[in-house]
Amino acid sequence: MEVDEFMVPGEIRDEPEGCPVDTCHVDLLAAIHANDSDRAMCILGLGCQQVTLDSGLCWASRYGDVEMVSLLLQNGANPNAEVWGGFTPLIWATIYAPTVETILNLIIAGADINHSSTKRRQTALHGAVIRDKVEFVSALVEGGANLDSRDYLHKTPLLYAVQRGAISCVKLLVYYNCDVTLTGWVEGVSVSPLLHALAKGHLEITRILILAGARFDRPAISQTLTFGEFYATLERELKLEVRPVYLQQHCRVRIRRLLKPGFLQKLRQIELPPLIHRYLLIDEMDV
């Protein structure tokens, strides 16, 4: 993945502008860059300004250094500190960290999971989907991330997942009951996830979206496909008779919408026959 494709406005600044000189600042950041937790612990013991702690946490989160992140949080670093562009440690971790542990630590520490960057209005969930990191997506959604957050182009995490052909992310977002109808701007055209999946030939994603209640909406007809081409593609390639499928999904989609937000949590609390439970979870996605 090209990181710039997400939203990174620039590097984290080692010396924040307009801040008093902190003699610990350079030393602490050097220890973080060197992955030297013992040295960092000694420097923290001398006392550091808040801006130094926060800058250090952003860097440690970017590196995915779980031990350093924990150390900085214990010493008062702010999990919701913002650097240039409105980036928080959680967003940096989502863009760069190699494993999910840093993200989990920041969530536990109280990181604002739905914070968005200043310019592109993208959240950590957007970043996780763009990187096609399913374990990141799962951690963020379980932590309370807004599945339907929209960036400056009105693109949801689902639309990004469809753009990248990230089937696992699409399945996970649908499983957690995201809105499959929200449109966003792609190459100057407002498209739905379903239309984009069809246009790119992502047939498996197309099938998943239809099972989740996506409709071939009228405003999209003139852009790429006609109704006839749409039905022919699905019936020929996916062996789906779309009209009966729409009727079948109508009830399921309505119930799933009534259970938002916190769809899975609510479903876990309701005692239902296994058949109905699988029906509401769209069990056919994995067939």
From TrEMBL:
Pfam families: Ank (PF00023), Ank_2 (PF12796). SUPFAM superfamilies: Ankyrin repeat (SSF48403). Signal peptide: none annotated. Residues 233-280 form the SOCS box domain. ANK repeats lie at residues 120-152. Keywords: ANK repeat, Repeat. GO terms for cellular component: nucleus. This is Ankyrin repeat and SOCS box protein 2. It comes from Mizuhopecten yessoensis.
